[in-house]
Write a structure and sequence with these properties.
The protein is α/β, with parallel strands linked by helices and 189 residues long. The protein contains 7 helices and 7 strands.
């Protein structure tokens, strides 16, 4: 039996009405979710609103499996498209669980929580940034060393995509290659 590929999608939540999620991010997230499910992958996210809800909705449109890692203790906080709601009671610290569950990570838009998830994923999970979706996704090239490293030592590399399909194809390729992560994860066992 082959284990399905788990793709964690990180991105901007809709918790602040004064700071809405860009419409292009929501459209892209829904398409990413659909494409992950179409390929038999499992969507993992923080399970709440915004990009998390859009990617979940997209996955469900293709009868995909959706896992939501919730920050609180109440499964009812999950968006309506989450199949498996995992309560952590960890608040933003659940970001570590969300990205470490993945075989690869896709970043769409993003605020400070998404930036935190990116830094957690960076050294141990292949990460694809879907550009032109707003937030940190559109700024990473300009703030990263040489446009693709989060530190001067070049321990790991950020990958970029211009379309949802390109992001999903790249995430699956990186997950299957086992690019970085496998050796780093052994250190924690």
């Amino acid at each position: 039996m082959t284990r399905p590929v788990l793709i964690t999608v990180i991105g901007k939540s809709a918790k602040d009405p004064g700071d809405p999620v860009p419409p292009e991010a929501l459209r892209a997230a829904e398409e990413v979710g659909r494409l992950i499910a179409e390929r038999g992958g499992v969507v993992v996210s923080g399970g709440l609103s915004g990009v998390m809800e859009a990617v979940s909705r997209g996955a469900k449109s293709e009868a995909g499996l959706v896992i939501g890692m919730l920050p609180g203790f109440d499964k009812r906080d999950a968006n309506p498209y989450v199949d498996i709601a995992i309560t952590t009671g960890m608040g933003w610290m659940r970001n570590t669980l969300t990205v470490r569950a993945a075989d690869a990570v896709i970043m769409i838009s993003g605020g400070i929580g998404t930036l935190n998830e990116l830094t957690v994923a960076y050294e141990i999970k292949p990460t694809v940034i879907l550009e032109r979706t707003g937030g940190w996704s559109d700024r990473m090239r300009e703030v990263a060393y040489e446009g693709k490293y989060l530190e001067e030592g070049h321990i790991a590399e950020l990958h970029y995509a211009a379309t949802p399909r390109e992001a999903v194809d790249l995430a699956f390729s990186l997950a299957k290659l086992g690019e970085r992560g496998r050796d780093s994860e052994r250190e924690y066992r």
